[in-house]
Amino acid sequence: MNDFLSMGGYGAYIWACYGLVLIVLLGLGIVSWRTQKTRSHRADALKAAQPRRRPGATLGTSSKVQP
Amino acid sequence: MLAAFFSLILRDMRLGYAQGGAAGLVIAFYAITISLFPFGVGPDAEILARIAGGVLWIAALLAALLSLDRMFQADFEDGSLDSLTLGPLPLSLVALAKALAHWLSMLLPLVILSPLFGLMLHLDGASMRVVLIALLVGTPALSLIGAAAAALAVAVRRGGALIALLVLPLYIPTLIFGVGAVEAVSGLGSVSANMSFLGSLSLIFAVLGPLAAGGALRLALE
Amino acid sequence: MHWFANPARFIRLADKILPLTLPLTVGLLAVGLYLALVASPADYQQGDTVRIMYIHVPSAYMALFCYMIVAAAGFSTLVWRHPLADVAGKAAAPIGLAFTGLALVTGSLWGKPMWGAWWVWDARLTSVLVLFFLYLGYMAIWGAFEDRSKAARAAAILALVGVINIPIIKFSVDWWTTLHQPASLFRADGPSIDPSMRPPLYVMLAAFQFYFFTVFLWRIKGELAAIRLNALRYAGEAPRSASPKEEQP
């Protein structure tokens, strides 16, 4: 196990490389996943909320009707 | 159409030297940048002669960069860019004319003055000739690439700092072959090969730069 | 709103593809890591540092691959005005930037034990460094515009100028390094690669590729949601406030 970790004396470099790659890729992946999730939730919520906020609105012209 | 093209070049050159024009400023910037290097690396003649080619080229790159944001900005703000679109020239030719005017009024004086600075950096005669020719052949590419970046920056409106980021990576090949030609004098490679690459860069960007700039100007004017 | 028809269909398609690519990414990555770190032999010349190659080379490859995606997206933005193209370019660029950065750092960490220096102005590292700057410029253009469609086209123009420049830059940097440096101590990648090193390298390449597709789809979905959110906000708030707040990703 120690042999594996020391990687013939180059362990620091190798593990730094692999660690960094994993951290960056994981970080980018999580950020990308979460933004799309929260944004589409927010968009869905907004869409659901909009007709209720403006009861007089007719379909299709809703954006031009004052609340 | 040709008449419109040349009159646009002349107009821009006149503006460059008129009061408030940038041409004098750019030359002063070039001179100051070069004179910073001896302070940075020490006055040792051998070291200065060794790096002189690179110094002259990098100073030229920075001077070109400094003058780029004026290429379209003023014309855009006072509306003359709009009126140019009504003229006979397509926007990409407008960009080509402006790039040529930029080269003639901003960079050509630097090229002509460069032997003087070469002298101050202890560059020998043979290398100096090559530097002069290399700058002459290579600097048009700087104006032509710069036209594309300047046009993009005009479209952005607050694009001053953006230009540097866009343009400097694209200047690298010109820098490499320009300095390569100088170093070839002292035996590292062939002068003529470097020169012909410099020339081809200028020719490639004579097409590519104005095309991209034209597209970007169309965006700016929308 | 027929404009939205296309993105909606795309999102449905993406939702079908993602459940496949995500487990493939994770699985390939696990296998790749096992092969790269455990099951492959150390190089007789470079020792265990050769294992860095298994992530360095795929990162560098992905850096270029992402730029090709960005450039292709730019091309279809300008030529066909395809509504998804600019979204694709914007989505791919940060992934490309990440891979470019990783290629640089892993190259540096590989260079230290091999060349004895953190940074060597070697042709490949230098070209990747320039590519990094190109990505920064592309993303800066996206960030600098207020108007989305203008930003998309300006960024597309830059991407195309960049992609024509990549071979020129590569050539000039190769030229420059052969001039200034004795031939490289070794050539780790290239056709002379030992057969025992191929499986981990190829598996890691595939893993990175699938990682790209997964995150790429997520980012496209995020972009599309941002556009939809803006449109909804604009529709909802335009009568009340003059300037709808932009959703800045």
UniProtKB/TrEMBL annotation, chain A:
The chain crosses the membrane at residues 12-33. It is a single-pass membrane protein. Keywords: Cell inner membrane, Cell membrane, Cytochrome c-type biogenesis, Membrane, Transmembrane, Transmembrane helix, Transport. The keyword tRNA-binding does not apply. Its main location: membrane. The keyword Transport applies. Pfam families: CcmD (PF04995). Residues 42-67 are annotated as: Disordered. InterPro entries: Haem_export_protD_CcmD (IPR007078). It is found in: Cell inner membrane. Required for the export of heme to the periplasm for the biogenesis of c-type cytochromes. Belongs to the CcmD/CycX/HelD family. This is Heme exporter protein D. It comes from Iodidimonas muriae.
From TrEMBL, chain B:
It is found in: Cell inner membrane. The chain crosses the membrane at residues 21-41, 47-68, 103-123, 130-156, 162-185, 197-221. Its main location: membrane. It comes from the Bacteria. The keyword Transmembrane helix applies. Keywords: Cell inner membrane, Cell membrane, Cytochrome c-type biogenesis, Membrane, Transmembrane, Transmembrane helix, Transport. InterPro entries: Cyt_c_biogenesis_CcmB, Cyt_c_CcmB_bac. Pfam families: CcmB (PF03379). It is a multi-pass membrane protein. Required for the export of heme to the periplasm for the biogenesis of c-type cytochromes. This is Heme exporter protein B.
TrEMBL record, chain C:
It holds the Pfam family Cytochrom_C_asm. It comes from the Bacteria. Coiled coil: none annotated. Keywords: Cell inner membrane, Cell membrane, Cytochrome c-type biogenesis, Membrane, Transmembrane, Transmembrane helix, Transport. The chain crosses the membrane at residues 20-40, 60-80, 92-111, 123-142, 154-173, 201-220. Required for the export of heme to the periplasm for the biogenesis of c-type cytochromes. This is Heme exporter protein C. It comes from Iodidimonas muriae. The lineage of its organism: Bacteria, Pseudomonadati, Pseudomonadota, Alphaproteobacteria, Iodidimonadales. The gene is ccmC.
